[in-house]
Each structure stands twice: as C-alpha cells, then as structure tokens.
Design brief:
- This protein is an alpha/beta fold.
- It folds into two domains: about 5-15 and about 70-190, Rossmann fold (3-Layer(aba) Sandwich), CATH 3.40.50; about 20-70, no CATH class.
- It is about 45% helix and about 15% strand.
- The protein has a six-stranded parallel β-sheet with strand order 3-2-1-4-5-6, sandwiched between helices.
- Helix 7 (about 125-135) crosses helix 8.
Length: about 190
C-alpha cells in the first residue's frame, strides 16, 4: 500500500529555472559576462556593480515580464499534477512576501490545484521550521543548506532531495540527488512504498 506523503517543494531553480534566467537577463541588460557558476559570487568584477547596486538591479529584473512568466515545462507540470493526486504538496520558498502575488499567478496558470499551501520564508527564514510544522516527509530544494536545516528540524534524511545539477550544489554529498522531475517522481514513489 502506498503511503500519502507531505512534500515541500522549493520554487526557484526547482519549479522554475530562476537563476539561469536572471544571469542571462543581467548580462543582456548590463553588458556583463557572468556565468551560472558565478551566480552566487557578489564580486564587483563579475557584476560591474557594488552590492547595493546589484541588489537594485536584481530587483529591477524581478519586476520584468520575463521573470514573472517563468514556470515549469509541460512534462514537469504533468509530473507535479500526478504527484498531487497521491500526496500533499506545499510550496516552501525563500522568496519574499512581496513576490506572493505573481508566484500565485504562476501556480494558478501552470499548476492549478497542485499545492495545498504557499509558505514564504524569505531569504533568511527557516524552511526546516516550516517542514516541521507541516509534518513534511520530503523537501525538494536546490540548496543543501535548506535541506540540512530541515534534517536538523526532524525531516527524515532520506526525504532530503537535492534538486538539479547546478554549480552551487554539485559538491554536496550525503543527500539524495534528483537531477530532474522524473527522478523526483521515482524517489517519492520509493519512499511512499517503504
């Protein structure tokens, strides 16, 4: 018999490919040549701006139509709809509260009815605390820091899925790696059948 799981799903770089979009948009708008591997390095040399100006520029890009139109592809949406038939999915994101409206628009457009709730923790909040409150069995995130925090808060270690093949998460070991949504589906099915 398959067990119904509570699954927490990150938004940026899990549901949508946010960082690749933003790096490309930044390069085009501001004439830089940053790479995805440099995306988490705030140095002036890469972004041709001090940290305050970088924050301002990222905010401008976050207001663009292209950013707001990001969403999963058709195959990913199909897998998420399929998972929602047998499990309780919750969006748990480090996005800030001011991004709620257009995030909800994306979910309604691409993933209507898939998520039971949207939890915004902001850049410095704890996804682990949210997972504990939800009783999550699984957290799918591209950032190992959030996964380790969730494990410390009680998430089963086999339910910490490190998503994607990004420069910022390739060296983390000891976590279940899921490169794409078909791999997530298989890993969820395996846990549900334990």
């Amino acid at each position: 018999m398959t067990r119904r799981l509570v699954i927490a799903v990150d938004c940026d770089d899990v549901l949508v490919r946010t960082t690749p979009f933003l790096v490309d948009a930044y390069n085009q708008r501001y004439g830089t040549n940053a790479t995805l591997a440099q995306s988490h390095d705030p140095s002036y040399e890469i972004w041709q701006a001090d940290e305050d100006l970088q924050v301002e520029r990222w905010s401008v890009l976050g207001e663009t139509e292209g950013y707001r139109d990001l969403g999963p592809d058709a195959t990913e949406a199909l897998i998420l709809h399929d998972l929602a038939k047998n499990h309780d999915l919750h969006l748990v994101t480090a996005r800030n509260e001011h991004e709620r409206e257009f995030t909800l628009e994306m979910l309604n457009r691409e993933l209507d009815g898939v998520f039971k709730s949207m939890e915004f923790v902001g850049w410095y909040g704890s996804k682990g605390e949210v997972c504990k409150r939800l009783g999550a069995d699984v957290l799918i995130d591209d950032n190992a820091r959030h996964l380790y925090g969730a494990i410390e808060s009680g998430l089963p270690k086999n339910g910490a899925f490190l998503f994607g093949d990004y420069p910022w998460n390739t060296s983390d070991s000891g976590l279940k790696r899921c490169l794409d949504w078909p791999a997530v589906k298989l890993a969820v099915d395996n846990i549900a059948e334990e």
